[in-house]
Design a protein that fits this description.
Distance between the termini: 35 Å
Shape: globular
Mean pLDDT: 93
Number of strands: 38
Radius of gyration: 26 Å
Largest sheet: 8 strands, parallel
Structural class: alpha+beta
Number of helices: 10
Length: 669
């Protein structure tokens, strides 16, 4: 996790986080909580706040100024985000001068905000939005410049905010001088109330003191974790920490897993759709963290998906709960006010997986059939009760399911699946088997399936590709021979599996499954440093996976010498939990060896656990390691495995400072 440069960042704080869902089974029970009122006493934040915060995209750079903030309000209107429900335009750190005036008042930076904060508030209000502002429950804010914090100035600062027309306060936790968190945050609550102005109060103390247990009558939302970064590993770690806290959320008191990273460039669009889907299912605040001035059309499509936003904003205010979690296959269900359930089929793994549940398992009453609405494809179908899909790597299928008496007007739901390895060696033929399965109460008729590959590839069916009719639960199975031409460069290539069919009422429908195939190269014989070999894929909590240096958290090459317990290593991999590095071994290798541990660059901070997986089986692990421990020798037998995965988890306490080294890592084939 990054150090003390970021507003809202942990400033190298050590986190205490809740137990997360067990990776091999059902989520652990959450302690009972007291019953809370179904509505907020002051009528604020009855649904999770939606809006924008500049920090993730601008930090404290000069571009954060009045023109930029007012331009975001304009874009909310222009791009349809206002119509989608986004309401708050929030300033983060660096809006003030480093010192108070002679009367102890905060002074807006005249270069950034020449008209002052009230002028910005007036402009934002004129567009139909609300303005948010930032400070810290300490003597200074989190940025290294050290802007004035509100500790000891709560009533004066709150009065200024109210006089300026502020509608939302993010209250951080840096430079808190060791003062009790509950006391600090309660004092600001009282100060805000004393102004008489309705101000949504966001407690940003990083989950250190379990605010979900005490803050429901203090603030309207509370951060449950450390800061998010624009990476799959960071998002996944935060998701797992926030999911078990569902019982604590509700109208006027929300769990906040931090801002959205959608559109910042560190994840794929598939991963960003998962991020947005899971935040919505968790009834999390939706605060855009990307620069909308340069955002892509795909980013606006994700942020502006009104059907997904409606899940987040459902007035019942339930946070989704984990129904099941096994081997990276998650089912999370959210009860909706109309009695329906929104169900997320979330795949955390690096390969496509079938994820399935039932209407009964997600809490729906018995019925002849159900209407199933795909919230990303915007299509409805009927299901006899099974809710299932083959979900791409790092993908999420998000559906809304209801016991709808009018289910028969929709075509049957059809599930597409593909068996066999998507790893292809150039010039050699791989065999895949597709399955088209009718999940509906009605039959799918005139079924036809196709599999298409990149230009120049050979894709040929060796079995039937059509079926006159598929009754409920029946499948059309087709075997395909797939060949990448000799000389095809290693890398990822897209295939497309598609089924077209008709309903008994004559409606033509289709189902699609994107398939990512990888052209791979067999590893060389002998023993090779893993830092020299091409990997299939990587994920990392902060920054990229580094070859032969430690993880520096930002750009490639910013790390130092791999060092564990004072011992330097010239070769290896530097990662940051949560991390996965995958290698193709093609059943030709026998052993992985490494000296593993936490890198010395973070001092005494960090806890991690190392794992080595051969295909779907964990074949070696360390248990939790700390920085006080020397390097541990780790050896794994990977004989016969097609893919080897090197995994680093966060040790159960979040990913702050989790710089981990696979030192002197080698693969023997």
């Amino acid at each position: 996790m990054a150090g003390a440069l970021a507003a809202g960042l942990l400033c190298a704080a050590s986190l205490t986080t809740p137990a997360l869902a067990a990776p091999g089974g059902v989520t652990a029970a959450v302690p009972a909580v007291r019953t809370v009122s179904p509505t907020s006493a002051d009528g604020l934040a009855l649904t999770p706040p939606m809006g924008f915060n500049n920090w993730n995209s601008t930090h404290c750079r000069a571009e954060f100024d009045q023109d930029m903030v007012e331009g975001i309000a304009d874009l909310f209107v222009e791009k349809g985000l206002k119509d989608a429900g986004y309401q708050y335009v929030n300033l983060d750190d660096c809006w003030a001068l480093p010192s108070r005036d002679a009367d102890g008042k905060l002074v807006p930076d005249p270069e950034r905000f020449p008209g002052g904060i009230k002028a910005v508030a007036d402009y934002v209000h004129s567009k139909g939005f609300k303005l948010g502002i930032y400070t810290s429950a300490g003597t200074k804010t989190c940025d290294s410049v050290g802007f004035p914090g509100a500790l000891g100035h709560e009533y004066s600062d709150a009065r200024q905010f109210a006089d300026w027309g502020v509608d939302y306060l993010k209250y951080d936790n840096c430079n808190n001088q060791g003062v009790d968190a509950r006391s600090r945050y309660t004092t600001m609550r009282d100060a805000l109330r004393a102004t008489g102005r309705p101000i949504v109060y966001s407690i940003c103390e990083w989950g250190e003191n379990k605010p979900w247990e005490w803050a429901s009558d203090v603030g309207h939302l509370w951060r449950t974790t450390g800061d998010i970064s624009d990476s799959w590993g960071s998002m996944l770690s935060i998701l797992k920490q926030n999911l078990p806290l569902a019982p604590y959320a509700g109208p006027g008191h929300w769990n906040d897993p931090d801002m959205l990273e959608v559109g910042n460039g560190g994840m794929t669009d598939t991963e960003y759709r998962s991020h947005f889907s899971m935040w919505s299912v968790m009834a999390a605040p939706l605060l855009i963290g990307s620069d909308l001035r340069t955002a892509s059309a795909a980013t606006f499509d994700i942020l502006g998906n009104k059907e997904v936003v409606a899940v987040d904003q459902d007035p019942l205010g339930k946070q989704g709960s984990v129904v099941s979690s096994t081997d990276g296959r998650w089912v999370v269900a959210k009860e909706m006010r109309d009695g329906s359930r929104t169900v997320a089929l979330f795949n955390e793994s690096g390969t496509a997986q079938r994820i399935a549940t039932t209407a009964a398992a997600v809490g729906l009453p018995g019925a002849d059939a159900y209407t199933l609405r795909d919230l990303w494809r915007h299509r409805s179908s009927n299901t006899a009760g099974t809710i299932a899909a083959t979900v791409p790597a790092h993908g999420t299928v998000l559906v809304r399911v209801s016991a709808d008496p009018a289910w028969a007007k929709n075509p049957p739901a059809v599930e597409l699946g593909l068996e066999g390895s998507p790893l292809v060696e150039a010039g050699r033929t791989a065999t895949l088997t597709s399955a088209v399965t009718d999940l509906g109460r009605t039959s799918a008729t005139r079924v036809a399936v196709t599999l298409r590959g990149p230009a120049g590839w050979t894709v040929a069916a060796t079995g039937p590709t059509t079926a006159a009719s598929l009754p409920t639960g029946r499948s059309l199975r087709t075997t395909w021979r797939v060949t990448a031409p000799a000389g095809t460069a290693p890398g990822s290539y897209d295939l497309a599996l598609k089924a077209v069919y008709r309903s008994p009422t004559g409606i033509t429908a289709d189902a699609e499954l994107p398939v990512r195939a990888s052209v791979v190269v067999a590893p060389p014989a002998g023993t090779s440093p893993l830092g020299d070999l091409p990997w299939l894929s990587t994920t990392n909590g902060w920054g990229p996976v580094e070859r032969d240096t430690s993880n520096g958290e930002e750009g490639s090459g910013d790390g130092g010498t791999l060092t564990i317990g004072g011992v330097p290593y010239a070769r290896g991999l530097g990662v940051h939990a949560e991390s996965t590095v995958e290698y193709y071994t093609g059943t030709a290798c026998e052993r992985v060896t490494a000296d593993v541990g936490l890198d010395d660059e973070k001092g005494a901070k960090g806890t991690v656990a190392f794992e080595i997986w051969a295909d779907g089986a964990m074949v070696a692990s360390t248990g939790v390691l700390t920085n006080a421990m020397p390097a541990q020798a780790l050896t794994a037998d990977v004989t016969g495995a097609q893919v080897v995965r090197l995994v680093v988890t966060d040790g159960g306490d979040g990913i702050d400072s989790d710089h981990a080294d696979w030192a002197d890592a080698k693969l023997s084939c």
